[in-house]
From TrEMBL:
CDD domains: PRTases_typeI (cd06223). Its main location: cytoplasm. It comes from the Bacteria. The lineage of its organism: Bacteria, Pseudomonadati, Pseudomonadota, Betaproteobacteria, Neisseriales. Belongs to the purine/pyrimidine phosphoribosyltransferase family. Xpt subfamily. Keywords: Cytoplasm, Glycosyltransferase, Purine salvage, Transferase. Gene3D superfamilies: 3.40.50.2020. The gene is xpt. Its EC number is 2.4.2.22. Pfam families: Pribosyltran. It is an enzyme of class 2 (transferase). This is Xanthine phosphoribosyltransferase. One of its GO terms (cellular component) is cytoplasm. Homodimer.
Length: 190
């Protein structure tokens, strides 16, 4: 997606040489117009795929998943929670996920009320790095007896193992921008 790549080039910043900061359009401030077109791009990539539900993970996946839902006939969007709180349904699917940016393991939960056997679930997230978050979400969908029909990623770090991990899970992956390297302190696309 050219517009997205241009935005990454003009507005993205490299942190410590391995984290791409895109806080001003994806991870903190949101560029709603761009995200609307990101949602449409996912619908083009997954054209013909029947989607009953979209699953993402808080927080940055939520806006993207909602924008995608607009282009898939408004299926419900469910976001996996990263923290246990009093209002979280204790009857939940649960998985441990290693956080690339925080370098710790945390629990990801989805209430059993919101994923059901037989549902066709499209998973959406902002970044794919080593695939831990994606694998966790795929695991949760399968715990529910539902079917992960695809993974839509806004920005894939193609030089990490995420794609391999997702493919080993047997799930189709579509990324709108694939980064090849951060060589020379700048972003290079595949
Ligand atoms: P993974 O689980 O694939 O290793 O990492 C994916 C998660 O880590 C994403 O949901 C995102 O929150 C975060 N992440 C990984 N790499 C980057 C990065 O370069 N920039 C940003 N902003 N987030 C990243």
């Amino acid at each position: 997606m050219n517009e997205l790549k241009q935005k990454i080039l003009t507005d993205g910043r490299l942190l410590d040489g391995y984290i791409l900061k895109v806080d001003n359009f994806l991870n903190h401030q949101l560029d709603v117009g761009l995200l609307e077109r990101v949602g449409a791009a996912f619908a083009e990539r997954f054209v013909g795929v029947k989607v009953d539900k979209i699953l993402t993970i808080e927080a940055s996946g939520i806006a993207v998943a909602c924008m995608a839902a607009r282009h898939f006939g408004y299926p419900p969007v469910v976001f996996a929670k990263k923290t246990q709180s009093l209002n979280m349904d204790p009857d939940a699917y649960e998985v441990d996920v290693f956080s690339y940016t925080k370098q710790t393991t945390y629990k990801v939960r989805v209430s059993r009320r919101y994923l059901s056997a037989g549902e066709r679930v499209l998973i959406i997230d902002d970044f794919l790095a080593n695939g831990h978050a994606a694998r966790g979400l795929i695991d949760i969908v399968r715990q529910a007896g539902a079917e992960p029909v695809g993974l839509g990623i806004v920005i894939e770090k193609g030089f990490q193992d995420g794609r391999k991990v997702v493919e080993e899970c047997g799930v189709r992956i579509e990324s709108l921008a694939i980064l090849e390297s951060f060589d020379g302190g700048k972003v290079n696309f595949a």
